[in-house]
Amino acid sequence: MPAFLRYIWMYRRLCLIVLTPLLLLPVPLILKTKEVECAYVLFVVAIFWLSEALPLSVTAFLPALMFPLFGILPSKAVAATYFKDFHLLLTGVICLATSIEKWNLHKRIALRMVMLVGVNPGWLMLGFMFSAGFLSMWLSNTSTAAMVMPIVEAVAQQIINAEAEVDAMQTNSSGGINNEALELDEKICDGQSKSSELKPVNGYSNGCVTTYNIETEAAIEEYQDKACSEHTIEVEEEQPVSSDKKRYRCKKDHMMCKAMGLCIAYSSTIGGLTTITGTSTNLIFAEQFHTRYPGSTDINFGTWFIHCIPITVILMILSWIWLQWLFFGFDFKEMFKCGKEKTDREKASAKVIKDEYEKLGPISYQEIITLILFILMALLWFTRDPGFIPGWSTLFPKYIGYATDSTAALLLGLLFFIIPAYPWIRGTNNESNSFSYVPLITWKEFQACMPWDICILVGGGFALAEGCEVSGLSLWIANKMTPLGSLPIWSVVLISCIIVTTVTEVASNPATITIFLPILAPLAEAINVNPLYILIPTTLCTSFAFLLPVANPPNAIVFSYGHLQVMDMVKAGLGINIMGVLVVMLAISTWAVPMFNLNTYPSWAPIITSPTNSTIP
């Protein structure tokens, strides 16, 4: 590549930042209408978000800069859109997440759920998936993957090591090899003790050093040469064989590591669909929906959970079957066979999980308080306005609609800063109890967990939505999309889902939903369809970023462990993307119809009667 082109490539982001607004600037200068000027800002922000030429949160400040300059919104009005009810809800949720992570409650929940499922490799993977999915309902997808993946990696590596030792023992006993490292300790009992040199085992062990005898390692290597010669992963001859290249005994072990890693990446994303607070795209949708349609009471924590929990369970099971078939081959009879004896692999994995759980010790006071507050927060969300019975919000009849999910989140979130973490601390001489007031979480710990970039990004999306509404751009888009009303509604929904699923693979999920919501809402109004019919499935499909390592943070975290190639993730993710869109289409066509009354155009949505005059060509 010539030096000039290399120089351009090195500064490609700077060129994009400078050239994008300059090349688009003649359009608003020639067509001097508010709709065109707002469209100019929307295009510039969308290009920057999709290309990530600037950090997403930095790009989110552009509407605050450009709307006042074009006379679309005054600066004070734009600034007011950057902090909404969403931010208060997120604050309470992050208080809960901070305490869960600080006191290791997440690890206890994950290990306990895996122990309940069983230790068969297939069932073990399902247990990890539902554990990660459950945690992802309440924590961020990124935090869930980062917390669960080290446990999965430790279990996988321990299974490989333990099974290798067992196979070596069986090979040596059948071949008549006398290996002192594998004999029982009769000599030690007779006083003939022997010191054995120990060395670390390669592979991740979650902070603990795993050791075994060198002579055992020699037997294992001998067995690997005999038993796994057909499946051993090839290493380039010109390079010396490093310890990292011996992570897998054979192809089956490598497939197990791939499948377990992908199951965590995908379940961390799928689990977040279940709750309004589970992922940022759900929160952005809820806030923008309530801002655009303040008269609607259809979307709250309870209705969203009831609608999405079947989607999550169905998609989780289908993903498990897909990964099983793709990497192991799905043997139905073997999976569901009753009364079969545990294999050495299953016994090894059970021991690792049990040891990890025992390291946590008995449940602590801090974990109990966090769990109680966690349950109370969920109950308050569910019972605020369940729909089929009066909720606790009816206790304030004079202030209907004043209390939202953020009210409950803030109430419980503040308690984390009030309740003492150590209600009693014994004195240094062990003579008397002295009280030292330390809350469950501190402000510094909260700040470390608070995703301020997401807060700013969401605020930028609200500013864009407000600008589109005030300038008339949303109404113009709606009028231009009126011809789509001739298509069947299911085809409009399917096309919208496919578009956002494709875009979210190369753009961040929050940026994608922020760009498309102001477009899809006017589309639904233009074709006289309940906006929820289009907005709910497209919001869910925005989270289906399964194809690439860079598509979302959980994918990147799993990919960083080195088990996967890009094509592994593409093959697995493509199937789950297709299944995800189909399951969402099934949901919006069946149980969502009576739940949200989708077959009728709601009274809280505006009625567009005729196209307005506009100078936009």
TrEMBL record:
What InterPro entries does the record tag this protein with? Answer: Na/sul_symport_CS, SLC13A/DASS
Query: Which domain of life, per UniProt?
Result: Eukaryota
- Which ranges form a coiled coil? none
Per its record, what are the GO molecular function terms?
sodium:sulfate symporter activity
Query: Record's Gene Ontology CC terms?
Result: plasma membrane
Chief place where the protein resides = membrane
Q: Which GO terms describe its biological process?
A: sodium ion transport; sulfate transmembrane transport
Q: Does the keyword Cell membrane apply?
A: no
The topology of this chain with respect to the membrane is: Multi-pass membrane protein
Keywords, sorted A to Z: Ion transport, Membrane, Sodium, Sodium transport, Transmembrane, Transmembrane helix, Transport
Keyword Ribosomal protein present in the record's keywords: the answer is: no
Write out the annotated subcellular location.
Answer: Membrane
Q: Which Pfam families match?
A: Na_sulph_symp
Give TM regions. Answer: 39-70, 120-139, 259-284, 304-327, 363-382, 402-425, 489-520, 532-552, 572-593
Give the family, as the similarity comment puts it. Belongs to the SLC13A/DASS transporter (TC 2.A.47) family. NADC subfamily.
This chain belongs to the protein called Solute carrier family 13 member 1
Q: Which organism is it from?
A: Xenopus laevis
> Which gene is transcribed and translated to give this protein?
slc13a1.S
